[in-house]
Amino acid sequence: MRHTIPAAPDGGGHASASIDQLCINTIRTLSMDGVQKANSGHPGTAMALAPCAYALWRNVMNYDPANPLWPNRDRFVLSIGHASMLLYSLIYLAGVRDVQAGKVTDAPALTLGDLEQFRQLGSKTPGHPEYRHTTGVETTTGPLGQGCGNAVGMAMAEKWLAARYNRPGFNLFDYHIYTLCGDGDMMEGVASEAASVAGHLKLGNLTWIYDSNRISIEGSTDIAFTENVRRRFEGYGWHVLELMDANDTGNFERLLADAKAETTRPTLIIAHSIIGWGAPHKAGTAAAHGEPLGVEEIRETKKFYGWPEDRSFYVPDGVLAHFQSGLGARGAVASARWQALFAAYLQAHPDLGAEVTAIINGTLPAGWDGGIPTFDADAKGVASRASSGTVLNAVAQNYPWMIGGSADLSPSTKTHLTFAGAGDFQPPQWGGTYGGRNVHFGVREHAMGSICNGIALAGIRPFCSGFLIFSDYMKPPIRMSALMNLPVIYIFTHDSISVGEDGPTHQPIEQLAQLRATPGVTLIRPADANEVAQAWRVILPMTDRPAVLVLSRQNLPTLDRSVYAPATGLAKGAYVLADCGGRPDLILMATGSEISLVVAAYEILKKEGVSVRVVSMPSWDLFEAQPEAYRASVLPPDVTARVAVEQASGMGWARYIGLTGEAVVTHGFGASAPAEALQEKFGFTVDAVLAAARRQIARA
């Protein structure tokens, strides 16, 4: 039996002592104690939402704590990641087993001791939940709104998996995604973008539970947030329900059942709560949001709960057993049934079963690279966005669980999958199927990135695309991809001032430096079509990091590889493209479209008798990962006459040109004009490269 509890303490009495209430108050007190011991954190939301979280986990969610990698488990996303002690308490009470090196162990994911180490160095309970760091955490949620976007991606992934792999009698995929979000998420634009996508796609497998406590760090949300959230989500096409008291677990479970029964729309449950519920002086105030309650406030709160006032991290007898008898028992049965179903599926549908196994194991399909073309030498050449589109389509035909699209730019980014059967990921009402491979994100770059992270978390290989300048709108999800080691492929075109007439608002300058500075991101800016093909060969086997492919709008000459070094050198990040046969007097280096400039300069200088080396440097991070001996063989330390050329900010090039080298780079924001005029104005010409080269030779 579950109870409706008064909305706020009146200074006396205590909460019900039923076993359900003991479990709820255990979550509350563990959260309070963890934050207090760390002297840092956010206790109030965990205290307010403990009843909802308890009811969802123990009585509703389809999840096996003994098999947290079960592919058909329901997903729980804590988008309000600052309330991490709520999730850690749930993981501990549920008895989730730990995962090490991709294998489930007999050890608990979290112990009571881990909760006591909240926010401490090396602990399994960091300030915000981190995917892979703590088993039971389905995604890393830090900046508000990211978890909402991830959840939409997870829901899209389930729809795609079900459409491709479910067969009569074999309902392999039918899981639901539950997300706890808050006022901050509702204010963040990325959550709104993601909600709009979910409404359009009619994702009936998605439920957001909105903790409407009307408090933020600065106080009442009335100072900045007075809109009608219900009407906004109804406008998005969501099914909106309302829970007037977050303590009313019985009604909450009825609303969850209503949400799951609604299969044609995502559901928002607006749960009205009082932050810090139970705290006599801080409940309903900003003081309960982002700081410890304090020893005396905790003592009085525990008294209200009917809790031992001087005991910390106290778990009453029977709480663990009761919690696990719901979630664990239910999940064990469902997980075992699924494993038996999948074993039969492998017999009935071996080819599809092999695909599902590869998705689960994170492996590539056999022959994935069989169709990658080799491009003939061509002085006129082709834009790297176009050659990439050719390679992408060749690869995707052999990689069935690779899906993606663009933020309304696929005709420009050349990322539309055009082969027979590719189709569009759309509900039937919009003329597609959930098994389509082309995803239309709309003009929603930020949500596109966070959605792709959610798709990747399901084992599907996502790609997304836009203009390089719009990577500014995508820095948070790209960073989160890197933090989670997710192999999302980001394709950015229109990579320089040579975008031309669109002008400085659309001409990227500092974006390469920003992306190169992001740890765990591999950035590749290929110089011609064959480097593009090699880039895809390098990117796709990377299953532990995101990759950024930076491509041109303008044509790039396809180099004659019988004259210049093979494009396979790209795999090492930088390689000697052309050489003098001995010790060079000068090294010319560049990336992408600027390689054609340094190659042209090289040919002129070679005729003049100058010993010159050309180095193509499409990926700095791959180059830095090579042994020192290789790096020195490409860039000999004793050759100090060096020129680097790149139509971007010069930040970072000093590492390769040294203190005396010269960089032909961009120093401003560009201008609106045809590309040829811009290249002349900003010094990206063969003559400018030659002038820099001759200055270097004279200095040396």
UniProtKB/TrEMBL annotation:
Its cofactor is Mg(2+); thiamine diphosphate. Residues 123-143 are annotated as: Disordered. The keyword DNA-binding does not apply. Homodimer. Residues 382-558 form the Transketolase-like pyrimidine-binding domain. The gene is tkt. One of its GO terms (molecular function) is transketolase activity. Keywords: Calcium, Magnesium, Metal-binding, Thiamine pyrophosphate, Transferase. Belongs to the transketolase family. SUPFAM superfamilies: Thiamin diphosphate-binding fold (THDP-binding), TK C-terminal domain-like. It comes from Komagataeibacter melomenusus. Its EC number is 2.2.1.1. Signal peptide: none annotated. This is Transketolase. It is an enzyme of class 2 (transferase). InterPro entries: THDP-binding (IPR029061), Transketo_C/PFOR_II (IPR009014), Transketolase-like_C_2 (IPR055152), Transketolase-like_Pyr-bd (IPR005475), Transketolase_bac-like (IPR005478), Transketolase_BS (IPR020826), Transketolase_fam (IPR033247), Transketolase_N (IPR005474). It catalyses: D-sedoheptulose 7-phosphate + D-glyceraldehyde 3-phosphate = aldehydo-D-ribose 5-phosphate + D-xylulose 5-phosphate. The keyword Transferase applies.
